[in-house]
Amino acid sequence: MPFRPMPFHGELFKGYIIRLASRNGRDELKDFVKAFEIAAVAKRIYVVGTPEHQRFIEVLSNSMGVDCAALAKYFEQEKEVQVLDWLSSRHILVNHPSVCPKCVAKHGYLKADWHLYYATHCHEHECKLWNRCPQCGKLLTWNGMLLDGCPSCALKWKNVSPIKAELPSSQVALSNVQGQAKLELIKQIILKLNIGLRPFDASFQKLRDIDKYVCDLEAHVEHAFQLAHSKDAMVQLKVKRIQHWQSKVAGKPQVELFNKLDAANDYLFNRLDTESGHTIGESVEPKESSHQVLTSHRRLNASPDKACLELTWPQLKDTLKINEERIKSLIRGGLIPGRMHMNSPDKVSPCRVDDVVAFFRDIKQQALPLVASNDEKHQDEFIAWGDDKALSKYKLKTHELIKPVSSGELPIYAPDHHDHVFEDFRFCASSLEQMFGSRAANTDFRKPTKKQSA
Asked: Are residues 251 and 339 in the same domain?
């Protein structure tokens, strides 16, 4: 290798390889990599921190005649970001480059900060980063020509001037911190990004192909940043989430029930860093990204407009006060609304928010009014939904009473208002005594039929 320029501080590793290849007469990255007997499709060699990257940089340093540790040190910050949660998701973009055309024209290299997954702007020139050419509209590619202009249409960066834009508060904060402080800020944004991308989802699980299905991350990253540092932003979103679900299920308000379902997400919402000193911009209106970023299971089991209503088994357990296996059995038996797993028809998928509300309203429709709460006999006469300890007197559990309640054979009682939770439903002790007796002699309702348990 005749020309061996060293990296610039802050240069992206993959950008450095592009520059090194171009300096040695090879604009095509794959041709340069093949010279080191490395598969051209081995993307993980560009993910700093992977074993594949380590092997590549050892071969590269030997070829250049430089110390491997000294070469690797230039990309230490990139490594620290990339391995924040041990590569469970990429934090540095390696599929397509992002550039500030002014910076590339001025400095001649690609900055690692532009390829931080959560970076959307260039702080120096106060403009949005480009991943598409403004002239031909094509995505930019990893090619030596990128250091001068668009690899597709040869538009020169020195001839363009990006439009200035007010920097979002998240981008100001990212540009103002370095080292460990920067890593801590990135961690806060990572923690809230699933919410920033899908703010109205009833549950938050790992997302996929974000760079493929979300063309502009700016609003989502800014929202995640605000949720990480502003209690007001978090409180406002919680209210809007309830309103969103209410609009989806329609009918009478179910605020208490929705709050119960959403309590499982408090571990995400309540983790705030309000002492960081970062300036928080004007509140960002929550924006929902495409449901395509959900896992294939979630996409198959719900239409796009209902995808936000999907729940997890722990949420259902806490809300219905019934364990997971019992809930599955009740869904199979048609006693609770639900659906089977689209990819594995023998498996049951968790109920959605609208399923839980439909089930609640069915029970509520049959419920008789409770006696006044100040009635001295109230506590002795009724047993709360989910109080399996009290039901054990009759050798019963809550899930075993759903069938007789649904059939109308066992009365159930509820407050005279609609906005409450399942624990506010009551079973009458005398009715249980009459139907089941103290030894639960009648077991018809306690054991599912073979068809139900199939």
From this structure: no
